[in-house]
Amino acid sequence: MRLSSRLPQGFEPNALSAALARLRAEGRDILDLTASNPTRCGFRYPEAEIRAALSGPAVLAYDPDPQGSRAAREAIAAHHGCGLRPEDLLLTASTSEGYGLLFKLLGDPGDEVLVPSPSYPLFDWLARLEGLTARAVPSYFHDRWHLDLGALEAAAGPRTRAIVVVNPNNPTGHFLSKTEWAGLTDLCARRGLALLVDEVFADYALEAPADRLPTALADASPPCPVFLLSGLSKVAALPQVKLGWIAVRGPGAAGHLEALAFLADQYLSVSAPVQAAASTLLALAPAIRQQVQARLRINLAALDAALAHHLHLTRLPVEGGWSVLLRRPAVDADEACTLRLLEETATLAHPGSFFDLPGDGHLVLSLLTPEQTFHDGLLRIFPCL
Ligand SMILES: Cc1ncc(COP(=O)(O)O)c(C=O)c1O
Q1: pLDDT tens digits for range 200-219
Q2: Using one digit for the tens of pLDDT, what is the confidence trace for 325-369?
Q3: Which of 39, 95, 125, 129 is the best mutation target for the ligand 1 pocket, counting ligand atoms within 8 Å of the beta carbon and taking the most?
Q4: Which site from 1, 130, 179, 298 is most exposed, i.e. has the minimal number of CB atoms within 10 Å?
Q5: Per-residue pLDDT averaged across 50-57, rounded?
Q6: Model confidence, pTM
Q7: Residue from 79, 106, 101 nearest 90 by CA
Q8: Is 20 found in the same domain as 121?
Q9: Residue at 52 is within a domain
Q10: Whose CA is nearest to atom 7 of ligand 1?
Q11: Closest approach atom of ligand 1 to CA 92
């Protein structure tokens, strides 16, 4: 039997994952500098409150609403502010599911979406599984990252349906500037495109410039349809709860929400306990985020202290998010370098190529990594770079 051509040809792990699995099977203790699962990074969660929120009376009641429960949407609207109303929101089980719904909403098989790169590597598959193509349009770095609006305009063809940006970006940390937002929404309006803005990391500004766009919701009436995605994975560092959402703004918003609700109605995938817990979990979120924010700052300071002793290595500014880009002399390919580090120092870093960074000379580290591991890992890899 033939499987869909939307799937990969094979499911072999890449060389780095294969080497990691082999070393772990051999019992090697690996220092993971890519740790991005907050539930495994040593944060103190308000455990009793989270358990209680997820086991209230609503666990036994089923009152499905394809947009998601009104109470949960009210809590999410209040979290965002910016005049967002509960009726502007639709709940999903994750942002990944949100992308699936939006790609179904916006495209026909063969259509494409443009993605300023580097960016979140899942877009290729999320688009492809809906019959669409995600086309990368390189951004460029000059003191800070910049979208290439001219290249985006040139890349927009008759089958382009949307542009997908991450604000702040993963892994570059780039926040859109207000000028970029104006250019992007103008381009989308002129070319009849939707603008998808993933703001899962919006609460994690670090070295953010003053002219940044803190959130796309700051624009109350954008000239193009805007779909903002976020969720508890990052807002409350609770990826296991599985709650995401889409906020809809701009021309045609009411009709877009109606169509999204039709799509969501075919799945009704957000569980009742999660919806019932949403307002409590959002109330608990700031205290959890504070720990994450402190970790990001401490690790960044540790990195700067280590860099001071290795002048051939530098880092790029971290405007926001959970990652940092380390620059090294490109004496070998990034993937070969991370394999070498893993084999020689039992330390895991990600190559820039995993995120479409241009050329070689970038490693991606997670600032979420527990402090001691981060510190020890840097000590191990720096002499080898
Ligand atoms: C840009 C971006 N969007 C979304 C997600 C994941 O969100 P979810 O768990 O809601 O699918 C991630 C996770 O790393 C991410 O980096």
Answers
A1: 999 999 999 999 999 999 99
A2: 999 999 999 999 999 999 999 999 999 999 999 999 999 999 999
A3: 95
A4: 1
A5: 96
A6: 0.98
A7: 101
A8: no
A9: no
A10: 95
A11: 10
323 lines ligand 1 (CB under 6 A): no
**How far apart are the CA of 234 and the centre of ligand 1, in A?**
8
Q: Assess contact for 343 and 332: CB atoms under 8 A.
A: no
pLDDT attached to residue 192: 98
In terms of phi and psi (left: phi > 0; alpha: psi -120 to 50; beta: otherwise), the region of 32 is beta
Regarding the beta carbon of 121 and ligand 1, being less than 6 Å apart is answered no
CA neighbours closer than 13 Å in the CB half-sphere of residue 125: 8
200 close to ligand 1 (CB < 6 Angstrom): yes
Distance CA 114, CA 238 (A): 29
Interval 365-378 mean pLDDT: 98
Atom 6 of ligand 1 has which residue's CA nearest to it?
95
Distance 236 CA to ligand 1 centre (A): 12
Here the tokens at position 171 are 């892994």
Residue 94 Cβ inside 6 Å of ligand 1? The answer reads yes
Same domain, yes or no, for 21 and 153?
no
**Which CATH number do you get for residue 249?**
3.40.640.10
> Which pLDDT score is estimated for 58?
87
Which of 250, 284, 318 is the endpoint of a domain? 284
Give the structural domain span for 239: 61-284
Domain boundary among 261, 284, 307: 284
Over 163-184, what HEC string results?
EEEECCCCCCCCCCEHHHHHHH
Lay out the sheet containing 244-249: strands in order across: 89-92, 244-249, 226-231, 194-198, 160-166, 112-117, 133-138
Distance (Å) from CA 233 to ligand 1 centroid = 7
Contact (CB, 8 A) for 352 and 364: yes
Is ligand 1 within 6 A of the CB of residue 96? yes
User: Is residue 124 included in any domain, yes or no?
Assistant: yes
